[in-house]
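Reopening this ticket.

The earlier resolution said the output was attached, but the attachment link was broken on my side. Pasting everything inline this time so it's all in one place.
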Amino acid sequence: MITPETKSWTWVLDTACPDCGLDTPAVPHTRIPAMTRANAAAWHELLVSGGDELRIRPNPETWSPTEYACHVRDVFVLFDERLRLMLTQDAPDFANWDQDATAIESRYAEQDPVRVAADLAAAGAELADHFAAVTEDQWARTGNRSDGTVFTVESFARYFIHDPVHHLWDVTGLRAA
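Inline output:
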């Protein structure tokens, strides 16, 4: 059983991550689409070139590479939905997302890595395209997370990109450039 995540990762908006190395505050919003595409491509390569070891957890409390990839795929989908809300509604409220419940309900551990690779690549490309289409005046639009955190599209984009980059580091140990 994985211990549920309770940490608020919004601190990455203020400082570089000491683990994965991504300096989120220094990431210009114009780089988010390319970074999303590059991250999705790296996950795709990892998943299609791997084998059965992709389903093995390094220890009982850490997700396998496939489970991490399922989470990243779902993050791409969720953030795409939330971005759409921010661009079409005034200050929308985001429903709480229990990533641990999703992992269990969606049976991340049982999913096929090659299928996950395809779905992750498609979701990443769609989100990257949507971030690329954000106009200059839309970067200041807001959205509200269920814990009270208020994001602009710009802070939301920078907050978002840390998640897939960090999880790729979790799996590969490769630090952000």
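Reporter confirms the inline version is readable. The longest strand covers residues 142-144. The mean pLDDT is 94.
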